[in-house]
C-alpha cells in the first residue's frame, strides 16, 4: 500500500517500517547550486504525480573518512544539491496532532547528515512524536563572506547560509507538517554539538522568531562566533588561494564544490557561525548574556568527557593547564581549589577544558532563561555502556549521548557491537525524557516526568539532573551543580575560550 501525503509542492509516497511511516529525501528548498550558491535558500520546485520519498538524499560535500571516524557513520553520496529532510511518523494516529521534533546534526559544521544511522527517528516516533532530520550546507558552502557577495545584498550582509537552510526547513515544517500528523504549534528544535550551537544561534536570530517553540541543546560549546571582518578576510584569502584576485561573485560561484571542503587551516572554517550579518546581527553569547534570546522553554546539558573532542580542534588539555600556569590573570591556585583531589595536568586539563568549553554554557543559558522568566532543564550525561567502561573510563565522550536520545545504540558503532539489555533500558529512559519535554514542557511547567521527576531551574533554583552517575545507570538531581566553577568560568569565558 502506498502511503501518500500531500505537501505544498505535490504528492509524496513513503515507506512503512513496522508501525512507523518514513519519508526520506524531501526537498525543503531549491538546490543551492549555480547562481544560487551563497544565497539564501529559495522555495523548492513543485512536481507532477507522486514523488517517491524512499531513499535518503546526498549529504553536503565533506570528508568521508572524517565523518565515518567521528561523525556518526557513512554519509553516502555528496552533492552541492543537498537541502532535503526526512520524516518519521506513527502510521496509526488519532486526529490529535503530535508534537514535532526537528533534529540538527552535529559535526563542527564540516561533516554530518540527517540520514546517518544514529539519527534514525523510528524509536522516538514510536513514542508519539513526528521526528524530522535535515541536511544543511557545510563548510565554506554553509558559511562564507566576501566583498563581492556583500555587494549583492542591499538589505544587509548574508554569511550564515547553513543557518538560513535550517530556518527554511523550519518554515517548510510550519507549512507542511500537519500532513504527517504533526502539530505546527508545538515544534521542538534539538541538536548536538554544531547542531546544538545552531539551536542557540536560531534562538538569537531575528529571522527565526516564531518558527519553533522549545529547544534542546546537547553539548554546545562556548567558542566565540567568528567576527564578520575576520570572515571577510578569510573569504578573500580563499579566493586568492584559487587564483582569484578581486574575485567577482560569478567567478566565486564557478569554484568546484568538491575542492572547498578540503582546505586546511587557516583557510578552513571554524566550528562556529559568523556574527554581524542579518542572520546573527550580534554574537550569540552576547544575546544570552543580555537575556535577549527568543522566549521559550529550553533543555541544555553536556557530557562528562567532552574534552575527548578537543584534540580535533587542536587543543591539548594538559597544555591549557600549562598556559594557566604562565598566565597570571586567572590563578592556577584558584582553579586547583575548585577541583579538589584531581591529580596531574592531564586530568586537571581534561576537566577544566570540559567545564570551560561545555558545562558552563548550561549555567549561562539557565541564567538567561531565569532573566526572561522561562524554564530551563539542565542535565549532565555520565553513562557509559557496561562493556565500554574500561575504554571510556573518563566518562561519556562528546556525541555519545546521541544514540541514547534516539535509542539507536544497536545502529551506532562501536556501541552496537557490545550493547546489552541494561544499556538499552537506560537509553529508553533518556528518549522518554526528551519526548516528555517535547510533549509537555511549557512556560509554567515545573518538572518533567521520568524515572525521577526532573525539576526545571526556575528563578532562584539551580538544579541539574545527572543522567548516569560515575558511568552507572542512576538518576540524581543535584542542587547548585559545579556552581563555583560555573561562576568563575562564566566571568572569564570571554577572554579564555578561543581557538587562537
From TrEMBL:
SUPFAM superfamilies associated with the record: alpha/beta-Hydrolases
Keyword Iron: no
Catalytic activity, EC: 3.1.1.-
InterPro entries in alphabetical order: AB_hydrolase_fold (IPR029058), CarbesteraseB (IPR002018), Carboxylesterase_B_AS (IPR019826), Carboxylesterase_B_CS (IPR019819), Cholinesterase (IPR000997), Type-B_Carboxylest/Lipase (IPR050309)
UniProt KW Hydrolase keyword: yes
Single GO MF descriptor: cholinesterase activity
Domain (Carboxylesterase type B): residue spans on this chain: 3-319, 351-473
Record Pfam families: COesterase (PF00135)
Top EC class, one word: hydrolase
Active site positions: 193 (acyl-ester intermediate), 306 (charge relay system), 398 (charge relay system)
Keyword terms, alphabetized: Hydrolase
Family: Belongs to the type-B carboxylesterase/lipase family.
Protein name: Carboxylic ester hydrolase
Source organism of this protein record: Cedecea lapagei
Amino acid at each position: 500500500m502506498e502511503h501518500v501525503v500531500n505537501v505544498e509542492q505535490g504528492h509524496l509516497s513513503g515507506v512503512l517500517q513496522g508501525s512507523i511511516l518514513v519519508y526520506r529525501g524531501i526537498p525543503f528548498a531549491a538546490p543551492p547550486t549555480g547562481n544560487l550558491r551563497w544565497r539564501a535558500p529559495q522555495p523548492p520546485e513543485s512536481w507532477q504525480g507522486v514523488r517517491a520519498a524512499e531513499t535518503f538524499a546526498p549529504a553536503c560535500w565533506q570528508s568521508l573518512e572524517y565523518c565515518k571516524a567521528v561523525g556518526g557513520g557513512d554519509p553516502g553520496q555528496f552533492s552541492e544539491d543537498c537541502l532535503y529532510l526526512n520524516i518519521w511518523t506513527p502510521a496509526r494516529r488519532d486526529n490529535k496532532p503530535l508534537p514535532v521534533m526537528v533534529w540538527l546534526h552535529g559535526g563542527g559544521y564540516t561533516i554530518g547528515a540527517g540520514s546517518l544511522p544514529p539519527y534514525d527517528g523510528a524509536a522516538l516516533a514510536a513514542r508519539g512524536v513526528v521526528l524530522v532530520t535535515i541536511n544543511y550546507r557545510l563548510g565554506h558552502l554553509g558559511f562564507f563572506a566576501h566583498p563581492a557577495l556583500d555587494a549583492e545584498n542591499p538589505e544587509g550582509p548574508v554569511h550564515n547560509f547553513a543557518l538560513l537552510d535550517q530556518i527554511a526547513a523550519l518554515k517548510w515544517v510550519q507549512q507542511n507538517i500537519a500532513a504527517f500528523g504533526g502539530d505546527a504549534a508545538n515544534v521542538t528544535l534539538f541538536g548536538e554539538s554544531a547542531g546544538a550551537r545552531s539551536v542557540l544561534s536560531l534562538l538569537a536570530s531575528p529571522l527565526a522568531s516564531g518558527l519553533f517553540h522549545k529547544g534542546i541543546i546537547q553539548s554546545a560549546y562556548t567558542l566565540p562566533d567568528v567576527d564578520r571582518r575576520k570572515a571577510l578576510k578569510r573569504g578573500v584569502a580563499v579566493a586568492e588561494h584559487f587564483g582569484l584576485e578581486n574575485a567577482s561573485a560569478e567567478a566565486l560561484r564557478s569554484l568546484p564544490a568538491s575542492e572547498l571542503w578540503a582546505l586546511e587551516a587557516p583557510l578552513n572554517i571554524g566550528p562556529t557561525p559568523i556574527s554581524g550579518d542579518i542572520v546573527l546581527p550580534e554574537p550569540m553569547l552576547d544575546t544570552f548574556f543580555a537575556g535577549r534570546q527568543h522566549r521559550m522553554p529550553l533543555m541544555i546539558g553536556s557530557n562528562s568527557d567532552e574534552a575527548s573532542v578537543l584534540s580535533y580542534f587542536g587543543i591539548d588539555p594538559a597544555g591549557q593547564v600549562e598556559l594557566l600556569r604562565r598566565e597570571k590573570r586567572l590563578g592556577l591556585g584558584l582553579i586547583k581549589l575548585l577541583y579538589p583531589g584531581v591529580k596531574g595536568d592531564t586530568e586537571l586539563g581534561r576537566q577544566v577544558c570540559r567545564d570551560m568549553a561545555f558545562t558552563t554554557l548550561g549555567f549561562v543559558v539557565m541564567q538567561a532563561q531565569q532573566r526572561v522568566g522561562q524554564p530551563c532543564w539542565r542535565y549532565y550525561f555520565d553513562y557509559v555502556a557496561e562493556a565500554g567502561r574500561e575504554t571510556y573510563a573518563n566518562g561519556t565522550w562528546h556525541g555519545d549521548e546521541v544514540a541514547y536520545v534516539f535509542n539507536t545504540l544497536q545502529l551506532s558503532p562501536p556501541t552496537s557491537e557490545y550493547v546489552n539489555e541494561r544499556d538499552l533500558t537506560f537509553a529508553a529512559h533518556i528518549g522518554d525524557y526528551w519526548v516528555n519535554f517535547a510533549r509537555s514542557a511549557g512556560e509554567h511547567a515545573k518538572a518533567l516526568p521520568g524515572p525521577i521527576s526532573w525539576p526545571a531551574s526556575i528563578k532562584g533554583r539551580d538544579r541539574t539532573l545527572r543522567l548516569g552517575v560515575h558511568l552507572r545507570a542512576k538518576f540524581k538531581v543535584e542542587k547548585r551543580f559545579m556552581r563555583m566553577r560555573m561562576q568563575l568560568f562564566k566571568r572569564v569565558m570571554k577572554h579564555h575560550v578561543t581557538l587562537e
